[in-house]
Write a structure and sequence with these properties.
With about 450 residues, the chain is of the alpha/beta class. About 35% of the residues lie in helices and about 15% in strands.
Length: about 450
Amino acid sequence: MIVLLTAPAFTDPDSTTFKGHLRASPNLGLYLLAAILTGRGHQVTIIDPIDFDAAFAPDRRATTLAGVEVIGVSANSSTWPSARALLIELHEEGRRPVTVLGGSHGSILDEHVLRTAPVDYVVRGEGERALPALLDALAAGHDPAGIANVSLLRDGRFIQNPHGPLLTPDELATLPLPAFDLMPIGYYDLLPVETSRGCQHACIFCAVTFRRNWRGLPPAAVEARLRALAPFLDRTRERTFFFIDDCFSADHGRLAGIADRLQGFPHPVCFEARITDVIAPRVLDQLLRLPVKVMEMGVECGYEEGLTLAGKRLTLPEVEQAAALLLARNFGDRGRFSFVLGLPGETRKDVERTLAYAFKLADRQGARLIVSWLTVFPGSVIWKKKAEWGIDIGPADYDRPSWWREPDLFRRCHPSLRLPEDYDAAMAYARLLVHLFPRIRHDGYFREMARLEEKT
């Protein structure tokens, strides 16, 4: 079949820094699925998010969609409004091919998506088996109603087929290389690589698809993949690999094996590590054998009760231990600590406690800092238990453009804060801390934190 794969850009017209699609790294799923489908005999074209708006502009849609039989759109909850708007316009113009939605948003809100937007099929969760099976069925004229991981409507009746078995580590290791030869040159900073899938944990704010279901590729497969993908680094701005893993550091034996195989590896890497792994015996030694450019560590809260609430399985003494180890090893601003403000039940006092702790920690260790307000994403524990915390948000809220900037939605997701008073006071305190700790690099996030000030 003739297939077009695409994903909307994440742009924000109200933002001071997000003027275009994020530069960090491309959508790995698009390029991986393109390689898989091409290997199955399908003719595949990719419209990268940076080209999404131009390619689907009214005067170019006919050319973009010429001959296309199936359009596959990947969307998370932030980009779903753009995808939805385009699909509605194409439907109204009568030029919409068969439409398949993939990505985290449809995986959770599949029935809402199918009933409120012109989407024919939703592929939930892992798409490496489901999407080829769906396309093969469509090409052969067979009914796809029984394909695992696929949701659809049939005569108004919602059908959600069961999930198939997850890919094993060996199956993940034998997936083809992503079709990065189709990736735009010189736009993205980093080249994404998946060395493991899923997470061992279940933090309440996180909407990762495979919580407490972690699968790691063997060290030999990780090395082979990195060396095979190294030529594509020339297409990036920083010639750096980005491990997109939710738990890269989870298996300490695997980590040691990867470090052994990457001795002398010339290309820098960025990844996320758990603080409880960093302080485990000899793990930091293994991490530092890698050519680390950035290692991000999620702390999330600056007080013990908040860490317990967040499901971090972490204590402040463990955070302090990790910071001391990194300081002793001159890790500097290669480390990046992240925090979340406004967890369920948090008051202004709690928010300010986290802010104070975050700045002191980053200043002492010389690390970068990420601080952001809680955004409630479908699929997170907070989403599932939102009624218990008085959080008033539903599937239709995510259909609106820039929903994350709506003051009313912020209020409904943070019922324990008095708004705008508590928000304004916390932001004033954050600006004071930025002034008091001028050496801390915060990558523009504090400018973004002011997103509601003029609208609240």
